[in-house]
Amino acid sequence: MNKKKLDDESFHHHDHDHSHLDFTRGIAMNSDADESTPDPFAHVQSVTRQHRKEHGCGAFTFDDGRALTRLAQERQPKRILELGTGLGYTACCLAYGSPDSRVDTIEFDLEHVELAREQIEKCDLGGRIIVHHGTFDIVLKTLQPGYDLVFFDGLEPTFETVMQMRELLVEGGLLICGNLQLSSGTEATQLATELADASHWKSCDPIENGHTIVLIKQN
User: Fold this and answer.
1) pTM exceeding the 0.90 threshold for the entire prediction
2) Residue 212, SS3 per DSSP
3) Angle between helix 110-122 and helix 89-97 axes, rounded to 10 deg
4) Residue 210 CB burial class (10 angstroms; 0-12, 13-18, ≥19)
């Protein structure tokens, strides 16, 4: 959850018109995970929101953690990669959904790295979640391929980052990618073309009210 959105308003009202780029074309819209299902990490989400309110930083928290847990429960990934830790909320959601998994999560902000490690330990998940401090491009180059699930929740994803994530995913692995609507210009066009390529990706139902796409890697 690294710098997820510039602010709540900009998430729903964008300066750039992306009406010609349909990132969810061919994806059946569905409701988010059952709102009546208890969120075991709601307290981490609350701490994250309070931290951002006090510091005005980029620690935006994902709005659909229960859907992440549901996807992890359905797929049971053994290796999970997250880009954008924030204070650890979504890393905990993913680890909880797949009890035999190990999670690598990347965060640039050192204060957030330390706070995330603290929250993760409080959730008794410190033995399964590793928080890497650094930029996405540098840390990704140090990781070995073979991830079953990759979740992007940084600011806007770049084309290069998406291709790096694809290389790290196993065939049939799940890519969950948020904040595509924040991309613009040539970058947005490249992303739309790549993610709509049926030879590379199979579309699934999106989550977070359609803002976050879910794809299965092909070939």
Assistant:
1) no
2) strand
3) 40
4) middle
- All structural domains of the chain, each given as residue ranges with its CATH number in brackets, are 39-217 (3.40.50.150)
Mean pLDDT, residues 98-118 taken together: 97
CA distance 125 to 120: 5
182: DSSP letter: G
- Provide the β-strand partners of residue 213: 177
Sequence-distant (≥ 6) Cβ neighbours of residue 111 within 8 angstroms: none
Write out pLDDT tens, residues 5-49: 443 333 333 333 333 344 444 333 444 445 667 899 999 999 999
Query: 3-state DSSP helix/strand/coil percent for the chain, to nearest 5?
Result: 35, 20, 45
SS3 102: strand
Strands 169-177 and 147-152: parallel
Strand residue runs (E) in the chain: 79-83, 102-107, 129-133, 147-152, 169-177, 201-203, 213-217
- What is the pLDDT of the chain when averaged over all its residues? 87
pLDDT tens by residue, 195-219:
999 999 999 999 999 999 999 999 8
